[in-house]
Amino acid sequence: MAIAFSRPIRKTNGVQAILRRSSTIPVGPGLNVLGVASLKYRSLILPVAAIQLACILWQCPVSSQTPPPGAQTPRSPQLNSQQGAGDIVVRLRDQKGGEIKARVKITLQNNDGTPRSTAITEKGHAAFRGVPLGRYEVQVDGQGYSKSTTDVSLLREGETLTLGVVLRLTDGSEGATDQPTIPTLSMKEQKELTAGLRALQAQRLPEARKHFLSAAKTNPNHPDVDYLLGVLAAMRGDITVATQYFENGSKLYPHVASLTALGEIHLMEGNLSEAQLNLENALRAQPNSWRAEQLLATVTLKQGAYAEAVEYAEDALQHGKSDAKGARLTLAEALAASGDRKKSDQVLNELLNQSPTVEQAAEARRLLDLNRRSTNSETTLARSADTTDSSAPINPNSRNTGLLSSAWVPSAPANPLAQFPRWTPPNIDDAIPPVDREISCPMPQILAESGKRVLEFVENVNRYTATETFQHESVNEFGLAIRSERLRFSYVVSIQEFRPGVFDVQEFRDNTTSAEMLPENVDTRGTVALLFVFHPNYAEDYDFQCEGQTHEAGQTVWQVHFAQKPGSAPRLHSYRLANLYFRVGIKGRAWISSDTFQVLRMESDVVKRVPEIRLRAEHQEIRYGPVQFEKRQLVLWLPTSSETYLDFNGHRFHRRQEFSKFLLFWVDDKEIIRAPRETTQKSKPTGLGGTAENPN
User: Fold this and answer.
1) Percent helix, strand and coil across the chain, each rounded to 5?
2) What is the Cα 265 distance to its own chain's centre?
3) Closest CA to 677 of 524, 553, 587
């Protein structure tokens, strides 16, 4: 089943499914699909969302294909006729869709990582005949190209599976970036790490160490391997060895987990400058890492930078929700130290209503009592003397598990791997991020004014281009990346209104809509369309609730929750499977400027799972920034970054996109516009890329 997953508005071009099968398979109860399933969004004549997925790993029933004459067809040995067999055809293309004429080696490996068959071709294609049913790994290696590794599965006897592989030049000329890419784990190494993680969760430390060291033998510099060996050392109480592994894991690559672990260790030791350095590096690599934000809130609190502590704590709670509830302690302490004890009490009482840990509850009650006793400025200034337990360096070796948190750092109930069972961000409705509830929300005005901003956007934008920095990760059940890739594209968005309220929105990368140039042949689109939730034509489909006033990117904002109305047919979000559409309701949260009513940030989740396509989770976050159009004295708010998490059919993806170097096109005209202006006064690190032009 190849799935085409879409996000906002019209997609006129389908995404070609790269994995093709010759059999017809059931997709759901009483449902059979024959044909390539291309993920595309329906026309915004209906409008539909546009994150498009064409998959190479799922069963995609279509007509079988045979290799052209001249392709090598090595026979697989030891055919098990009782098990059944099929054929695997590999076709190679470059990033522009052209044929690969260079000499390339294609290796078919068994599930245990041992080679099964090898083909050398200069024709751009090869076939493996009579391959027993099962799971395999296809490795493609050619001089001048990045090595490619793809997992495939033969599921039915007699089927022909056609796998399209796009090879990328290694000289940086075809969309490569200067960011280091974490090497791919082989299938055998993945199995070792997974077995080790399960042993680690069961507290079978010697067994876990055996599996991790086995992976380290064949991939000694992989940051995930170093990180897990560091976790193992920390659980054994050897923080010195753990620190060495974490440093190794973050030396060659910006490994977020290792950098965050180092930040926590240095924080416990009282080395605030080193803690801050590592945590800021973690946020540069992954700007929405709530763990790094929560730890940075504690660091800045100890440094006396209360305004920064408030902002980091609020960010952690927005991204981590109830997982980051310990950040409410830091937020409350920073608010009280700034003189706002009333709001500090509100934050602490909210924490006590969120099932805190025993440690967190005790600390919250202590701070509430301290607030009650703080009746004058002298008492406020004396707070630092009365918070010795929370501000003094913590001895990391005093705890059996090393990285287990106190009330002030991210909590983990049993071991440091508690983060892995849920690798996606918490659901929108998991918890309400902290807001000032005493300020009345003018919800009708917010909807009317934000709707006007969306109308202005549509009226002023005909077509714009940008440089897109694209980071892709495929992760395993524990949230560890098993495949990572960074690319750069020329990105184009075209918006046309055929008639009032009927839009055509198209998106292109390097002048094409083909998914073959993207990792895993999965095309992600739709950064513009989520904003249409506030378009007057579609706002009637949603229930809106203003949750209160807070801060975002240094601005005062209204925090607004939205959700698809029960009984209202979704119009902005759908999945397409062959010729079948699955419309999906969405819910989310938006942060809207209280001054200009521009949308600064949006998050969304699907309202419910979609069992027909095995969709378990889909989370998206988009940030918007002001872009100045000098010639026409116009400022437009455009998407500057997007993060997408997908969990469906047993496969998991995380992608981050960043946009810079904008160009705005009018009919028979074009003009360069400035990069997004900074919207915050805080020196919080920005995300990957760094290629945007600096505004004057």
Assistant:
1) 30, 30, 40
2) 26
3) 553
Q: Which residues contact 357 (CB under 8 A, 6 or more apart)?
A: 326, 407, 411, 413
Q: What percentage of the chain has pLDDT greater than the value 70?
A: 73
Query: Rounded to whole angstroms, how far apart are CA atoms 365 and 262?
Result: 30
Length of the chain: 696
pTM comes to: 0.65
Q: Which of 191-195, 265-269, 396-400 has the lowest mean pLDDT?
A: 396-400
| Dist CA 392 CA 345 (whole Å) | 23
Comparing CA positions, the residue from 478, 482, 476, 474 lying closest to residue 418 is 478
Same topology between domain 4-59+441-672 and domain 85-158: no
Of 250, 253, 337, whose CA–CA distance to 300 is shortest? 337
Does residue 31 carry a pLDDT above 80? no
> What pLDDT is stored for residue 16 in this prediction?
28
Asked if 333 contacts 363 with a C-beta cutoff of 8 angstroms, the reply is no
The rounded radius of gyration (Å) of the Cα atoms in the chain is 26
CA distance 449 to 547: 17
Alpha helices in 393-541 (DSSP H): 443-460
Question: In the chain, where are the structural domains located?
Answer: 4-59+441-672, 85-158
Mean pLDDT on 520-525: 71
Q: Does domain 4-59+441-672 have CATH number 2.50.20?
A: yes
> 85-158 maps to which CATH number?
2.60.40.10
CB 641 within 8 A of CB 287: yes
